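Obj: model holo form, ligand = WT7.
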Amino acid sequence: MTPRIGSFEEYQATYNQSVQDPEGFWSSIADTFTWKKKWDKVLEWDFRQLDVKWFVGGKLNITENCLDRHLATRPDQAAIIWEPNDPNEDTITLTYRQLHAEVCKMANALKALGAKKGDRICFYMPMVPELAIAVLACARIGAIHSVVFAGFSASALADRINDATCSMVICSDGNFRGSKKIAVKDVVDEAVANTPSIKKVLVLRRTGQAVNWDDHRDVWMHDALDGMSTECEAEEMDSEDTLFILYTSGSTGKPKGVVHSTAGYMVYTTYSFKNVFQYEDGDVYWCTADIGWITGHSYIIYGPLSAGATTVMFEGVPTFPDAGRFWEIVDKLKVNQFYTAPTAIRALMAKGDEFVEKHDLSSIKVLGSVGEPINEEAWHWYHDMVGKGKSPIVDTWWQTETGGIMISPIANSTPLKPCFATKPMPGIQPVLVDSDGNEITENEVEGLLCVKFPWPSMIRTTYGNHERAINTYFKMFDNKYFTGDAAKRDSDGNYRIIGRVDDVINVSGHRMGTAEVEDAIDQHPEVVEAAVVGYPHDIKGQGIYAYITMADNVQKDEDTIVKEIRDVVSKHIGPIAKPDKIQVVKGLPKTRSGKIMRRILRKVAEGTAGNLGDTSTLLDPSVVDDIKAGAK
Ligand code: WT7
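Output (holo structure tokens):
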């Protein structure tokens, strides 16, 4: 069994050992898993070339660790408890035995449709059990999954399918989301009109709504599963074989396909899950994230299932049928560990305490936070109102690229400090550097957050473009992984994450590249130029503020323009990227060399334009007055 730390002293001793002897530390943890063949060497690495291999020469299948190995010890324990969008629909429980059988059936169905080891399979699905089942089925046969959040637009979906040349899309007819019914298959139809690599579209019947059908391409999931065996041998995978691709936005260009490999990812997500949340046998654990993001991959599916946990999957939204839905589910399922995002906490806090007080939350032992900095007010409300002052909050800092939680308290061991992610996990060696890349070794400092030693679940490459991965993460500071975040370190060595230092904004815990939003806005035929920045938003953490210049001859009123801009962004990326504020300006503040001075735009958006600093290098300083006067 994967070991679990039990006190702060034990954490400190474990941490020290993990730094002094990383290979010894990780091999003793990796020993607790099921391998088809043990590794020859624990680690080989070179950050400058981004060549990192863990458990070199090992052979395994992650689903044997998530499923088969539990059949002997916990066959009838719930593996997944699924809670539907509509509280009147039945909860579904899949035991480890049932989940094993369902995954095998699905794996056989995928094979019958022509899928094989190494193929890329795209998912565009609601949060239903079949999503987890089919993701695991891919892993069973060695196909690489690329899950796309079902809120992205057809064009964003097509871009991701084409980048990874996926051969299949797995989707549903529709999606129940709150009081809405979303036409998922229609979006997929529109996307696959422009994706030559797609041979099959596998469709789950969920809502029963009418769909268009292409007999050569489309297959109902229930037909594909019909008659399939509940046994399917697990493909032998190398430790470093790719498990999945997950797209994420950066400061430049199109989203990158972050590539994760098999063994290191498995070992790290399992170990961090058990330790951060202090999961004990019999507990019910619930992470509210969507499987379209890394949090869902690592801490709904792989980490918990590999640890033999009971993991809850929720189809709906926190405010349907009312703002008490999360707490109703906690009460109903007697949830012990609850993991959500600050944006959800703030949104529910704003609805009033009565929605929490109506429900019995006494089962909760540990509360988790992820995705963005949690502000002091939200931290205290979460701690006092939801946790009744008795449950620790684990503020977990990590990224799509890190695969697993990097800096976080170990529940009930690490002393908490509101708004601090506190201490690095065992095996994680964070450093702060100044802008010249010099390591800052003292405490009570602020710096750029890097990691100076490899960890098992780290990014291996960006799909189809290895140079891009090196340039994005390993070029900025020699021999270090650069996170893109700034952080503070206090006198006790606790870390507080400040936020991104690149042109990436964090909207409701979702990462958004400003360049990507600008590119989408530029698709509007009458827009000449756009510049996008983030600004503080009460609920979302950061909101999106777009400044645009329009062609001279445009006669439309501002409301029409704003609506059209929001629509064009929705169409090219998805509703999550719609700007909250749009300001039409005469010109953008540019230097003589043509560079937009974003600093000025950020200050105006933040409402702190009183102190703009030096603007003397601007080509036309008068645009600043116009921008300030028209600020939203
Ligand atoms: C960025 C990564 C991995 C979880 C989901 C987001 C920010 C993440 C925290 C936290 C402050 C946080 C960082 C990071 N972030 N967790 N606990 N406190 N900031 O994954 O989309 O890859 O975004 O989210 O800025 O770089 P992601």
